[in-house]
Design a protein that fits this description.
Elements: H1 6-24, E1 29-30, E2 33-36, E3 40-42, H2 43-46, E4 47-48, E5 57-60, E6 67-71, H3 72-81, E7 94-99, E8 102-103, H4 106-119, E9 127-133, E10 141-142, E11 149-157, E12 162-169, E13 176-191, E14 206-212, H5 213-219, E15 231-232, E16 247-248, E17 251-253, E18 258-265, E19 268-276, E20 280-281, E21 285-290, E22 296-303, E23 306-309, H6 313-319
Parallel strand pairs: 2-7, 18-23
Antiparallel strand pairs: 1-4, 3-5, 6-7, 8-10, 9-13, 11-12, 12-13, 13-14, 15-16, 17-20, 18-19, 19-21, 21-22, 22-23
Length: 320
């Protein structure tokens, strides 16, 4: 390989050095549109390639959920104060500066009130709260975060359902005062379609819908797990609320069914056919006419068409 002449080598070295220096000292480039998540706009928010000035504060951000225009002259003045005297304006005459915000809507107010009531033990598990406000909520924004809305003061009168509260919105200096009434609901099972009497409830038969706590207490509303696999005691229409009194354990022995009676006594098991004299669910007592002896015995329904008789001597005699 032929070595480069000294003059050419020096020229290449100088060019490379100048290129590296230019890259190292590239001017920050002004952005045209930015969105920030904090109260302060920094150099890195406003410029590309901010370098060592990145964390320097330039000015306060607008309120959450709002935006404004900052003139190029205002940007220059703020940048000069932190030592950034040269930057590429990229043809921008102003910069749009927005601050991220969460709209404070009805759902967020409900969640905040529910958290407050749960914290002081006033909201049972599974109960939801809905605030009916006495005034229009309006458009308010809070800064994003774990707790965008919190309660500074809160008063609730159960006797009238009235409440009043002062809500702190993250990123806002002025609290939001609200008042109105609170309504409490629980999810309750409703039928998705009509069922005939005696039908066994499957998961697809049920849809959970909110009802007032007062109605739930008066009607005796069961939990979902307490009705799946149960039998409806009457014909029920689509959309109707399922109450505790509407369901029972499925009948596994029906009146007039021919069933198998069995009795265990030590290693011995006696069986005989009988006719059920009443309906019975699993574990229920049932009277059975022994078809061999024409005597009536009582037993426990243990499976479809199967009744177990207890082992006293009178029962053994009735099976013979």
């Amino acid at each position: 390989m032929t070595p480069l002449p000294i003059t050419r080598l020096a020229a290449l070295t100088a060019a490379l050095t100048l290129g590296l220096c230019a890259a190292a000292f590239a001017e920050p480039v002004l952005k045209s549109d930015i969105t920030v998540n904090s109260e302060i706009v920094t150099v890195s928010d406003m410029f590309e390639d901010a370098g060592t000035y990145a964390e320097e504060a330039l000015f306060r951000a607008p309120l959450p959920g709002t935006a404004g225009q900052v003139s190029l002259e205002a940007v220059r003045l703020a940048a000069n104060k932190v030592g950034l005297n040269h930057f590429d304006a990229a043809g921008n005459l102003d910069v749009r500066v927005a601050r991220a915000g969460i709209l404070v809507d009805q759902d967020l107010i409900n969640e905040t009130i529910a958290a407050q009531l749960r914290a002081n033990g006033s909201l049972p598990e599974g109960t939801k709260v809905d605030a009916e406000l006495s005034q229009s909520l309006g458009d308010y924004y809070a800064a994003p975060g774990e707790n965008p809305v919190s309660i500074e003061q809160f008063r609730y009168l159960p006797s009238t359902s009235n409440f009043s509260g002062r809500f702190k919105l993250a990123g806002q200096s002025q609290p939001l005062s609200l008042n109105g009434r609170l309504f409490f609901t629980v999810d309750a099972p409703h039928l998705t379609h009509s069922l005939a009497a005696g039908s066994v409830i499957a998961p697809d038969d049920i849809e959970m819908r909110p009802i007032s706590v007062q109605l739930a207490d008066a009607a005796g509303v069961p939990a979902l797990d307490d009705i799946i696999g149960k039998q409806v005691t009457r014909q029920m229409r689509e959309g109707i609320l399922v109450r505790t009194a509407d369901v029972d354990d499925p009948v596994i022995v029906a009146r007039n069914d021919v069933v198998t009676l069995f009795l265990r006594s030590g290693p011995m098991t006696l069986t005989v056919k009988g006719q059920a004299l009443n309906d019975a669910g699993r574990g229920d007592s049932v009277s059975v006419l022994n078809l061999a002896s024409n005597r009536i015995v009582r037993g426990i329904a243990v499976d479809d068409g199967t009744v177990e008789v207890q082992p006293p001597a009178t029962a053994i005699a009735a099976l013979q």
